[in-house]
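SAMPLE LOG
Freezer: B-3
Tube label: C17
Construct: single chain, 294 aa
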Amino acid sequence: MSPRWNSLVRLRVVPGSVCGTLERGWLRPQVVASATQATGTWDPESGEADGAPSGPSLDEQTQAIAAVLGELARTAPLTGAGLYVELADAFLHLDVVEGDFAASSDRQLQAVASACVLELLGDAASQHEVRWQLQSGSRHLLIAAVSKAQIQALIDLATRHRLTLRRVQPDFCTQWNRHAQALKPGSAVFAVASGREAVVAQVANGAIAAISSGPWLDRPDARLHNERAERLMCGFGLAPTASAGLLDTRVDRLLATAGLDIHKQSAYVLVAPQLPGKAVASRWTVFDREAQTP
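STRUCTURE (predicted):
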């Protein structure tokens, strides 16, 4: 059995599917097993699937994760491996608050983040774990609110499979850490697309200053049937006719709200599934989200 520091399991949990890999190795881990399990398209706000009055709940998502881990375990032992989880941004809430935080303690920043989540979610805020990251320049606080039930389900699954839960991270943050170096000084736009949703950030000199999320594909058939949905959700590519006009509309609206000229942005960076040739406008620098291992 490989030492625990030599093995890791990565899970990507998105609406419609769970994808997992078992990796071995120290400096350059190699994938030794992979597995995918389709689920219903769970709406984390209502607990209902699209078109289903009593659709899949967190329980079904948990069962899908367990099935993926079980399939990986049949290939090689998982005991002692570290577990790293990427949660689709549709399963959490992201926000940014601006202020002078240079002299603020961690406790004060946690209080600010918690107050913002309370304003955003109301009574439901108590059901979420609040995380934050102070951006460069100490003027912008990036906030994420993740369901406590979802976190506990991951902890329970890790314990059951004798894994060590190392990290649960929003997909947006994973892609930001991987690709933010492609941005240029000044005001820029950074977007991450997964499934039907995209998160768009207006970036000021390397700091996330404003954020917006919502649909990014024009075609209504982005709400795809199972086989195509699985390809989309796991990032293997989009339909050849897909186009991202809604993404540009969202970006332009975000920039207008901030009083910024769309023609004076230093860069437009998009991380997305594999795209057809002319799916996005020429202003975008596009990174295939599958091109590198996180």
